[in-house]
User: What shape does this take?
Amino acid sequence: MNLAYRDIRHHLGRFILTCFGLSLLLGVVLSMIGIYRGLVDDALVLVRTPQAQLWVVESGTRGPFAEASRIPGAAREAIARLHGITAAGAVTYQSLELKHRGRKLRLYVVGFEPGRPGGPQKITAGRPITRAHYELIADRRTGLALGERIRLGDQTFTVVGLTEDQVDSGGNPVVYMTLLDTQELQFELEGAIARHYAAHGVLPETDTINAVVARVSPHVSVENVAAAASRWKHLSALTQPQQEVLLLESVVEKARQQIGLFTALLLAVSAVIIALIIYTMTIDKTREIATLKLIGAPDRTIAGLIVQQALAMGVIGFALGAGLIASVAEHFPRRVILQPEDGLALGGVVILVCLLSSVLGLRLALRIDPAQALGG
Assistant: This one.
């Protein structure tokens, strides 16, 4: 019978507890990788939803996600007339926090022109917006239901459609409404300043947008269209890859570095703990190993006992940890994306760590004197 199996069966309770503790640690490592994947995916959801190849923003800014960008609403018609543009849409973005049904609700509001780029890519329930005002499409994470009415600013909106996995880079759920409604919500003046403009007979300009998203013909160079759009001094243009890189570097870079560093530290801690566990288990088997040596067991048999136990502990701990995280991933406040390739990579790292950690136990086992089997 395999010596490693016999030893595990003899100390089954301790082995199971050790594997369970290791599974929690490896589960945390896997969850950190999943949180990192979710963070990057969340950051890119809004950029990829319009399926655009060109972003036109205020000149000198990196908006609309990295910093503020305001351009006239008429810029959309000007961009749409450029050679190579097949469709263009004006969009606005803003964050809102309100109380609804007695709970705090933080939303990321996207304004778009129905029928043009900028709206939700897929509606999973309900219908698109068909009225010019006071209808919205909400992500399911808002907790809003179809037909529910919600107060935003001075108006009451009706939820007519639902989407899934539409969040901003901060993990806040997204709601879509018409551009006219968001302009009213974002740029309309209230209170004393509104009364000041009214007293002087001045109508404040509300036809302002944050960006124009445009689709470019596959037969035309996107870079050439971007250069043409940038000739207007008050505009600058970014291609889709440039916008994604800019967003990742400016918005999620620090969080990404922090999660990456934390994951590396957890892996290092896991390696140390596995090494200590194997070393302690080897010390506990000093008399048994001495007895094996006394009856003439070769070194490879003793090495096999230690390495096989280390691998069994690592594989079982990883499998338990992966199963645990997969079962609770949906309950995390932010999205946790578990990809098979990440699991396979971590599994490979765990096996490598187990093999390296076995060296300490092997060194101890091979130095045990067979005479210790005869000691008291």
